[in-house]
């Protein structure tokens, strides 16, 4: 093995795969209740301001994207001649992720009414935001020192705060942070039009254009944590101590900023970036200490199998229910119903409405766990 090859070989953290897997499993859990009208409060997003456990999931994933960039591209950063090739690869990966997100928005109407599907497709989305954050964070990582990355992170948080709280919204006349009248909502409607926004609102989008800016800051937060974790001149105990204290400080700053710029997942406010980034740092540092340093890892496999095929299972878990809803079967009373409703009727008959909804979501998690377990044992890892 040449020195360059050794540099380019990415280092894998079991704790990072564990954290990623737990996060993706939680994503699937909250995205697939049996009945959207019956959900336990912690499994719902905050109505607007505030933060529930569900609101932590997406920022945790973007934070993990940042940590992964630091590990996967660290060797390439040291070789400027490889930056162009690395950025092209990142662009290809981001394009695939963005395309998969658009496909989920188009499916199944793209096959039955393609013209209408493209006229009404939601352009923002979860996979689309992951793609943009990954690409821009990767470029910033390759082209800047850690000190500059930190400065860029702070600048993004400050600029976004100023834009949202000081710039008068056209047509409204003043700056505000309400659902339909904030600057981000106005920008989304102006550029994307209501036809291409979140169907539940149509006037604003939780993965909109302007709020992607602080989402990039979440990715940069993860990069800085990943760079520090990779340092070979710092012992593990010192790393854990500093990271945990840094996480606590970020949470405290986020809560303090919340008094003026509320913690809000849909707006991805600067206080939300600090609060969720701090919590993610604390959790990852604990996982690192327990799993990678102390080697207590027997419990990790169910989550690791999710973590190594995270994007694949997230995409398929969004696609399969739509396919189920396209398949018509005969119900017990002889009437036609879609396959998902038919399957869920067994849960509805056995549990109370809210527990039936939760039991369905848990069963969906276990269904994918079996598939991912087999894939992991056969060393099948689909890289997007």
From TrEMBL:
UniProt keyword terms in alphabetical order: Membrane, Transmembrane, Transmembrane helix
Record has Transmembrane as a keyword: yes
Transmembrane segments: 56-73, 94-111, 123-142, 149-169, 208-229, 241-260, 272-291, 303-324, 344-376
Protein name according to UniProt: Uncharacterized protein
Highest classification ranks of the organism: Bacteria, Pseudomonadati, Bacteroidota, Sphingobacteriia, Sphingobacteriales
